[in-house]
């Protein structure tokens, strides 16, 4: 570690708690909690850190976007995307400490949003403070911090289009990233897309006595049969005609990058607590570039304590389709509706709930090489891997496609962070190493 890196680590260790109030806000977009308090706090914090411009955008609706702009010592401009909303903490009784009070145990900070995404933002605020006290920022920096990521970022395209000139930059550093199970830093060049649907069916005007199941079909059975017709159990293939038509095949170079990724099926199964064999024979390719169909939940009939002998009249299920970056999520509802009708289920109603396209950065872009080269210098012991796109979804397309910029994720998470779960945490050592890497990226980019 260089002398400058040691100084930055010492500074971060002494000052991260200056911003720890960010974690104390219960900022849950799904429950409309903490949005104003958190966005106002960020507005004031960016001002205190010396931003030349700070604005609260509300002109396109939804939760406010906090925009901040800092002047650096070069002409290069980096746009940071973060979000200030988090998942709920429920079930709270599974936490070992207050989920909204940052608690340090064994070199880890436990709190909701530790990694996703308040922790990433918090340590970027620490870096801004460090720069303001040590000669200024190496590059111009812009921050776009939204409050709807955990509920689908439904306004992000409108804001990006409306404020395109203000968001002009040379590269985008995404909300965050993490080390994989092998300890390597994962540098990620985008995200998959997603389409969420609701399927529902009614088989009668009212629930029936369960004895009538002798001749009356129940809604749950009808729905289960319909769902089963959409996927092959033998190879996980989606049985929806046309669903694969807009998947752009991986290039030879992209295939080589995928082949280099770390993936230990036994370790993956152990860490996730899987009780069944993996469904895919080529999981890395499928994670990067193949659509999935997933049942999020099924709702039907009586589910309280005891029994109620009814034949339910209504059943519904929520599905999500993870999509390759090239796919159009708005096509999915129509394809599924058409396929269900062809399979003999024209009575199944299909609703489109939410979705967003994916995005993948050009692996040959100079900024990609710069981030990878600097990672090689910082993460000497365990190294890094380049992931074409995250296996999750997010609004990267709004910046990659609309602003035509490379979008890369680098950050402070690790495989045991329990993102979205109880006892979400980050390791302080990872946070300091991520800051060292980000500092090196910005200085080299300048």
UniProtKB/TrEMBL annotation:
GO cellular component term of the entry, any: cytosol
Gene3D superfamilies named in the record: 3.30.70.360, Zn peptidases
Stated name of the protein: M20 M25 M40 family peptidase
PANTHER family: BETA-ALA-HIS DIPEPTIDASE, DI- AND TRIPEPTIDASE DUG2-RELATED
Protein's UniProt keywords contain Thylakoid: no
InterPro entries: Cyt/Met_Dipeptidase, Peptidase_M20, Peptidase_M20_dimer
Keywords for this protein: Hydrolase, Metal-binding, Protease
GO biological process, one term: proteolysis
Gene Ontology molecular function: metal ion binding; peptidase activity; succinyl-diaminopimelate desuccinylase activity
Domain Peptidase M20 dimerisation: 190-343
